[in-house]
Amino acid sequence: MSLTEDQKQILKSTSPIFKEHGKEITSILYKHMFAVHPELLDIFNRTNQKNGKQPFALANTMYLAIENIDNLEVLMPQILLIAHKHRASTVRPEHYPIVGKYLLVAIDEFLGGMGDPSILNAWAAAYKIITDVFIGIEKKLYAELGDKQEQGFLPFKITKKETIASGPVVAFTFERTDEGKLPGYHTGQYLTLRIKKKGCLHIRHYSLIQPFDGKTYRIAIKQENDHEPKGIVSSALINEYRVGDIVPLSLPAGTFGLVKNAKHHLFIAGGIGITVLSAMIQDLHKQDKSDLVTLIHCVIREDQAVFADEMREILSENQYYLLIQSRHLLQETIKKVIRSETDVYLCGSDVFMNKVEEYLSQYNHPTSQIHVEAYQPSLSLIKDAVKNHPTPNPL
Question: Structure pTM?
């Protein structure tokens, strides 16, 4: 399927409306879709729906795809990242037409119920092109898992649960219980957990915190008590789940990972963002490449410095910078350790990462050498795309 020249012109002329009001349009989409298809909430992060991050991420995805509709290849890193999340959350081809239907409903409603059919047809055609790309990639990702029973959520038993830092931060070790094969993963990837709370299914993605040992998966979770709403899944897992309990997991996914043959790896973590980065550092250590590593970890208190002892065993004093209530030293430390050949890996809150990226920009560090792992939908972090206006609660 391809777009006509008239449809391309329509998209070009209407995309500025989506840039300005895309989040409002996708919020309308989700409101109507979930009213008719509440079962689809089971494959979305309900918190990201309520706080507007998911509508904003979808709006950015659509806007950027429309702007690059003749060359979607330029968006392939973002497309692959989303496709991995979709596979991990068990998004299926039959879900896309449902979203597409309510996208057109939302556009029409935003235009006052008088949407020009030519506008709706152009957006429908573009949506089909975009989603065909996602469906094709996700089909391959599912196929890589093997049999269909491997492609959904599988039973895993908690075999170890330990508090590893204040917060608290709790590490969970899982073993598969159905005698199926335990696939490997590369450091930087994540597990997807699904739990039931008050009759509702909730899914979350948590980074794997060690290189694959052939037997188990291990993650670390921080209890989110410092903001509202408190973390539904993190609180339930930490307070209610015990060793021996069964948790449904989907197999590892994700595109974040080490750059092969990099000459210098700089890891910059804010708080609990160290979890995924520590696994990558351990991986390099196993490859006898720890001399290529520098780590900057920013925390509020030293007892919140997850994996500090492990990092001190691997890294020397001039490789490991633990900044305690010293974010004013962060820029100075980055300037001290960064080189032109450095690949930077960044994980933390969006405020923290924005500040680090600002510093890196001041030093003219190439964006191609900056690799970000986000807590929230990554396309909700894209700058200079859709305006992030406050919108009514989509649920």
Answer: 0.92
